[in-house]
Design goal:
Blueprint: E1 6-7, H1 15-18, E2 20-24, E3 27-37, E4 40-45, E5 52-55, E6 59-63, E7 69-74, E8 77-90, E9 93-98, E10 101-106, E11 110-114, H2 119-131, E12 155-161, H3 166-181, E13 186-194, H4 199-203, E14 211-215, E15 221-226, H5 231-242
Parallel strand pairs: 12-13
Antiparallel strand pairs: 1-13, 2-3, 2-6, 3-4, 3-11, 4-5, 6-8, 7-8, 7-11, 8-9, 9-10, 12-14, 14-15
Helix pairs in contact: 3-5
Keywords: Signal
Organism: Oligosphaera ethanolica
Protein name: Thioredoxin domain-containing protein
């Protein structure tokens, strides 16, 4: 289909509902907790291209808005992986949920924390945050551009979605299924585009919707599908990206 279109964020959850909050070094940050390793808290701000690497000694408070299970290790048993909902950091202690109780670990007890980020939700909220910067903000770095939505070390399918199109929804479902079937080897990122004036449409020079952009594990663009294409074309483009071609 022709004519520019659409994005804005699938109306999934508001920023206030999803945002984790970090207070460190006298400053406040909003975004998503991305992990902990080697004495540093990793925190991904909505509009930043790289996560903050904050030394733990500078962290005053980390609050997780929507606690979910994470994998973590203790310094005394680095090969034993534990799983529990992570609540945040308060008064220098790492807090985990254990049923109705709360587990507390001192910093010297924690080895690492690994987090699986919901990239669809993250990109939706990142775009919402970017949109809130105002019409006078010409900075198009960050999550507006497809290449900044690429997931490290995974095949990434960026779907510029037209919400009013049944075909776009059907094709998106196929792309997501292909990624899900890869068992963690691929990530599907859906971006709802509002119109041709949308910052995402302008940043990526979109002239039609829907579009699918495919990136290989090295983060290199391996193919684009725009205007006329079939579900078979999507499968073939995904396979090419998966093979690194």
């Amino acid at each position: 289909m022709r004519g520019v279109l659409v994005v804005f964020i699938c109306g999934i959850l508001s920023v206030a509902a999803l945002a984790d909050s970090l207070r460190a070094g006298g400053k406040s940050y909003s975004g998503m907790f991305a992990g902990y390793a080697k004495g540093r808290v990793q925190f991904q701000e909505w509009t930043a291209t790289e996560p903050l690497q904050m030394e733990l000694r500078r962290v005053e408070r980390l609050k997780i808005a929507k606690p979910s299970p994470v994998k973590y290790t203790l310094s005394g048993a680095p090969k034993k992986v534990l799983t529990a909902p992570f609540l945040g950091i308060k008064n220098g202690a790492f807090l985990f949920a254990a049923g109705d109780d709360e587990l507390r670990y001192f910093s010297r007890q924690i080895g690492r924390i690994d987090v699986k980020i919901d990239y669809r939700a993250f990109m939706a909220e990142a775009q919402r945050a970017a949109a809130g910067k105002g019409d006078d903000d010409d900075d198009q770095d960050g999550p507006l551009r497809a290449r900044d939505m690429v997931v490290d070390n995974q095949v990434t399918v960026v779907h510029f979605h037209h919400d009013g199109s049944a075909a776009s929804t059907r094709q998106g479902n196929l792309a997501q299924r292909l990624c899900d079937d890869s068992r963690g080897g691929a990530a599907y990122v859906r971006v709802l585009v509002k119109d041709g004036d949308d910052p995402v449409a302008q940043a990526n020079k979109l002239r039609s919707l829907p579009q699918f952009w495919f990136y290989d594990r090295r983060g290199e663009l391996s193919g684009k599908l725009a205007e006329r294409f079939t579900e078979e074309d999507i499968s073939k483009a995904f396979e090419a990206a998966h093979k690194g071609r």
